[in-house]
Amino acid sequence: MEHSNKQHQNKLGNWIKTSITARMLMVGFLVIILLIPLSYINSLINERAYRQKDVVNEINDKWGNNVLVYGPVLKLPYKTYKETTIYNKETKTYSTETQTNIKYAYIFPENLNTNVSVDSKTLKRGNFESAVYTSKMNFSGDYIKPQLKLKDIKDEDIVWKKATIIIKTSNLKGIKNEVVITLNNSKYAFETNFNNSNNSYLNELESAFIKKEDLPINTIKNFDFSMTFNGSEQIEIIPIGKTTTMKIESNWADPSFMGNYLPNDETKEITTNGFKADWKVLHINRAFSQLHLNKIPDLNQFAFGTKFMVMVDEYQKSERSAKYGFLVIGLTFLIFFLIQTMSKISIHPFQYLMIGLALTMFYTLLVSISEHSNFLKAYLIAGISVIILITLYSKSILKTFKFPIFIGLSLSALYTFIYVIIQLENYALLVGSIGLFLILAIVMFVSRKIDWSNG
């Protein structure tokens, strides 16, 4: 009985050693097993990417967050009347009382011109960095007489002496100067309005009461004011002028223009020393009017401006690279399988496993080195290290020089191919598909002489 068991075990062992099918099953099983460390590597990359976001948010919170300015808006109170009928039980008669309420109209300027000068730099915390800036924003423009009659509001019901100016901003903490508006040659300071219940994302500044002679009752009134911010990542305004213009000049060499409106291509300049851009938005280009009743509308969706982003995409590239881990391991194992099958050299499953673990180490090296250097250097160091390690290990397995050299060259070509795909955006799918087609053609050509009948 024992003799028959030993014979059965020997037959099974010989089948595993000599059968092509058995080797294929073994290689496939190992590839699936190696997906486990690859999934942990992907989790590590995501964790480090989230850590980067947390650090950047911490830097921005201390320096100053993104800047969005919404204003200036003329806040004009007006009277409304409500008649109430009251019944007197003693006299058994009815009387009418008129109740007066104060409501507000919000008037946008006829013209709004914004000139922005931005001094940008990067702040670092450990291995992470964020784009921050100090911006000086100069606003100027004018108001015309508001057409409240179109809203059934009579001139005599307007409370001119209680009019104020409203400015909203997303970065109250980052303001670095006293905000004072000059209106018709008179100056009015702003204070924070903590009673703001509208549009909680933006903080509200409100001026003192405007003198009647400085209001656009009969003639156009000009205004100008400036705001200096410490901010980060982006700067935007909302085009509330009937005609709105904005000009930005900065030393940041890699801007990203954002929002509903793009700058004029004819005047836009981007160089290694910075950029210049200007916008012009007409009232016909947006879907809101110049006069609003009861509350200032939420118009954040109409904002436009510029992003100041550090182009740190090492984690994104590492993540894209790790997605090809299955392909790298599968093709490498396929090369060893073809060499083993065609040369009759025995390769133990443990040796396959060591090669697979070496391939997964590429990604941990890539992530860790890229945090201290750029992605290209990290990719080269990690790739060369893994290729040398596997090539030398292959020499001990395959006992010759030609196969290890072939494996080293194949891995070099494969890592180069993947790096090219990672760098591409629009043509990544096309180049990847062509490359995989060529790899498949080569494998089919090489394997055509294998005798699969021994499986």
UniProtKB/TrEMBL annotation:
It comes from the Bacteria. GO terms for cellular component: plasma membrane. The lineage of its organism: Bacteria, Pseudomonadati, Bacteroidota, Flavobacteriia, Flavobacteriales. Keywords: Membrane, Transmembrane, Transmembrane helix. This is Cell envelope integrity protein CreD. NCBIfam families: PRK11715.1-1. The chain crosses the membrane at residues 20-41, 321-339, 351-369, 375-393, 405-422, 428-446. InterPro entries: Uncharacterised_IM_CreD. The keyword Transmembrane applies. The keyword tRNA-binding does not apply.
